[in-house]
Specification:
363 residues, Rossmann fold, 2 domains, 7-stranded parallel β-sheet, 6-stranded parallel β-sheet, 37% helix, globular, Glycosyltransferase involved in cell wall bisynthesis
């Protein structure tokens, strides 16, 4: 079975480019996405890319045209299945002309498809669940978390759902990162890392308060979502050692930040699990065998074989205490060797593609 992958989201920042490029490379398959997804990336030799017009607003007209064109071109390329990534964002483009190709779809945030949680679906018109049900009658639907599986099962039969872990790295990269973690001494200037933009739902205020007394150095792998947070931090904790990247952090720079961190923290607030989405940043950090601190909100997304410190959601004192423990001896809280195999088997791009092919064959 030969796959092809589609994603026409028009804004470069985020998991969209990393995801489709990683899948396309692993499957040696055509990818249909905007040119901007490939800008500044390395290791693209052999990647089969067909440019699509990006649509940041996810309006149905352009998406329908792009999907139809991708289906036609995928047939010409000899693909058997076109995987539409992020159905929860482009469901209103359907129905489309498929040109005879089979399709599968991924739901990144199943709980958000109804539009009751805000975001892009809050302003879309139409019956999202009805579209999902009609597609699921013939097409496999992929989810990435246990919460997402429960949510999708409310609307479609369980035997139409494929539950696969979120892919975060190649097998080679995972093995290389674990070897480096075992061999490398602690850095000269350890720091706490928060991955991504400093969004409110990620608990940025709780984290800033936990580290803001001038103790641990904090780096934010992305800009602050609300600029006023920087003013609040400077006024409340003038001795705080906090730095953040000035703009979007590309995949190469993010790898550098994670590799250099003493601990990666995920102080997410209550409500994140409600949309059923995966924290790709958490999986990414685990591939570096880093110590992690998470709130109860993300507990279910930490693999059983992984080591982690779990703190009550929104508890500044507990978060500060956990960071104190890890920063005193980061190597003590590193990840066990068993996690490497788990990540290769469940979160590498190669295994993800293999599992897609095997599971799609059953549908």
């Amino acid at each position: 079975m030969r796959l092809a992958f589609f994603d026409d989201y028009g804004e470069v920042p985020g998991h969209h480019p990393d995801h489709i490029v990683g899948l396309g490379r692993a499957a040696r398959a055509p990818i249909y996405c905007p040119d901007s997804f490939l800008a500044g990336r390395r290791g693209l030799t052999g990647l089969i890319h067909h440019p699509m017009t990006g649509d940041v607003d996810r309006t149905p007209g352009p998406a329908r045209a792009n999907l139809g064109a991708a289906c036609a071109e995928a047939v010409r390329q000899g693909a058997d299945v076109l995987v539409n990534l992020f159905l929860d964002e482009n469901w209103d483009a359907f129905p489309i002309t498929r040109h005879g190709i089979r399709m599968a779809h991924t739901l990144h945030r199943p709980g958000a498809i109804e539009g009751t949680m805000g975001g892009i679906n809050a302003v879309k018109q139409g019956d999202a669940v009805g579209v999902l049900r009609r597609l699921a009658a013939t097409d496999p639907i992929v989810v990435h978390t246990s919460a997402g599986l429960r949510q999708a099962s409310r609307w479609i039969p369980a035997d139409r759902i494929v539950h696969l872990g979120w892919p975060a790295a190649t097998e080679q990269a995972i093995r290389r990162r674990f070897a480096a973690a075992a061999a490398a001494p602690a850095g000269d200037e350890p720091y706490v890392l928060l991955i991504g933009r400093g969004n409110r739902y990620k608990g940025i205020r709780v984290l800033l308060e936990a580290v803001g007394s001038g103790g641990h150095r904090l780096r934010i792998g992305g800009k602050l979502e609300v600029p006023e947070d920087a003013d609040w931090l400077a006024g409340t904790f003038p001795r705080a050692r906090v730095t953040w990247e000035p703009g979007w952090v590309d995949d190469h720079r993010l790898d550098q930040l994670i590799a250099g961190a003493a601990v990666v923290v995920f102080p997410y607030l209550a409500g994140f699990e409600a949309h059923g989405g995966v924290s790709g940043a958490l999986v990414h950090a685990l591939t570096f065998a880093k110590p992690i601190v998470v709130t109860e909100e993300l507990r279910t997304q930490v693999p059983e074989v992984a080591a982690s410190l779990v703190v009550p959601t929104g508890d500044v004192a507990a978060l500060r205490a956990a960071l104190d423990r890890v920063m005193a001896d980061p190597r003590r809280f590193g990840q066990p060797a068993e996690l490497e195999k788990h990540l290769v088997d469940n979160h590498s791009y190669e295994r993800h593609v293999e599992q897609m092919i095997n599971r799609f064959a059953d549908h």
